[in-house]
Amino acid sequence: MAQDPSKAAKARAVVASLLIVEAILIGAVGVWLIVLAIKADKFELSPLLGELLFVALGSAGLAASAVGYRRGKYFGRSPAVLANLIALGVVSYQVQAGLWFVAIPLAALALATVVAALRAIPE
Asked: How crowded is the C-beta side of 61, counted as CA atoms within 13 Å?
């Protein structure tokens, strides 16, 4: 069943926008980690570098997926869904820690992105 091209483009734009928001949020976490490290009395360089590498790769991967969606390519679907399923796993840890102010928005964003990514149909 063929889908209306304008609806498909809108669906891709929604997914791309959600992925860009996530990429920006992950980048902000990286900046926050750097600020915390600068303010700390002492810190371990190796774990910080590992976290920053994870932040850079995660943010870049989500941004690349967003660009792919915007261009009508679907190579970013699997990474987008996988990253958000991992985020839903992180939500469970936030709930256990009682950090509802983090868990609820993260769950909402991750669920919205997974649903949007799975509903966007290739042309």
From this structure: 15
What's the CA gap between 89 and 84, in Å, rounded? Answer: 9
Q: Please state, in angstroms and rounded to a whole number, the distance separating the CA atoms of residues 61 and 41.
A: 33
CA distance linking residue 91 with residue 77, whole number of Å: 21
pTM for the structure as a whole:
0.84
Structural domain that includes position 55: 5-119
Digit-coded pLDDT (tens) for 69-82: 888 887 888 888 99
Tokens standing for 116?
A: 């949007």
Number of domains in the chain: 1
For 3, the 3-state DSSP assignment is: coil
Place of tokens 């399923």: 85
How far CA 32 is from CA of 23, 37, 72, 77, 98, in Å, comes to: 14, 9, 33, 28, 21
Q: Tell me whether residue 62 is exposed, middle or buried, using C-beta atoms within 10 angstroms of its C-beta: 0 to 12, 13 to 18, 19 or more.
A: buried
